[in-house]
Amino acid sequence: MNPRQLKTFLAVIRHKNLTRAAAEVNLAQSSLSDQIQALEEELGADLFLRSRQGVVPTPAGAALKAYAEEILALNDEAKAAVSAAAGSAGQSITLGTLETIAAERLAPWLSLFRKKNPDLGLKLKIGGSGELLAQLQQGSIDVAFTFDRGHQDERFLTRRICSEPLVLIAGRDSQARPPASLAALSTVPFVATETGCVYRHLFDTAFAEAHIAAPSIVTEADSIATIIRLVASGTGYGLVPRLAVGPAATRGDVVELPWPGKPPAASLVMMWRRRRVQPPALTLLLQSASEELSPLRPADARLRHAG
């Protein structure tokens, strides 16, 4: 049972499809099947079944999954520990984040960090919140910057950076008036991301905590930038992070409406895998983020208020 076999095994679990799994691990499908068969022979159990849902793990395969992830994580940690002890630790780090956070919060800081650490290689990957957590566990990214959903995962360490306010926006020409209450706001149309996205979670939570039914979602969009454009066109209202609204507000495309009640906010956090030995480059980046990533001031967004 070697790391390559385990990576192949986990790829099949993720994709539920041999062809897509083979593409991920750069193997011919026949070679992938050979690796899975060798693993099954060594363990003395079938690991997968074919079904209408695709290739799914057997109970034995499901039991192996957590151990495979842990073995691969320990393999990475061992390499990092040896490199650190030998004084040849890799000077490269991969960050994963949401598109909005990358553009509006990380770009200025990463530019400064790069100037201070010119020998350190940086890679940036954009993805959804669920995708980032999967990549973090797989080791394809070293640290994730996202909004906290309040769920503790013992596989990861989490550090809060700051609280980012969410703002209610409407199109410039919508003749929108400040809502008198959350109940009144629940009757107007909204544009939001799809269910499962961290932004949609924040939207639903804002109403759930007030014990009020969430408004009707007239359009679902795949990004905050798209939501802002749809709001500007008059499709509906939006509840978005203030950090994303600056350019549209400067152009006068949208206006901010006061939120009835306590304004909602999201905690911007960075997450990384628990390891016995942290790579020196990651330690350096985490320290810089803690010290130099600060909250966005309300005035920075330059929003036009309606009222």
CATH topology grouping of the largest domain: D-Maltodextrin-Binding Protein, domain 2
What's the helix-strand series? Answer: HHHEEHEHEHEEHEHEHEHEEH
CATH A-level architecture of the largest domain? 3-Layer(aba) Sandwich
CATH superfamily of the largest domain: Periplasmic binding protein-like II
- The domain tally reads 3
Compute the number of helices: 11
The poorly predicted ranges are: 296-304
Q: Indicate the CATH class of the largest domain.
A: Alpha Beta
Residues in helices, as a percent range: 40-55%
Distance between the terminal alpha carbons, to the nearest Å? 66 Å
Strand content: 15-25%
Number of strands: 11
Pfam family, one: LysR_substrate
GO molecular function, one term: transcription cis-regulatory region binding
Function: Transcriptional regulator of the ttuABCDE tartrate utilization operon.
InterPro entries: LysR_HTH_N, LysR_subst-bd, WH-like_DNA-bd_sf, WH_DNA-bd_sf
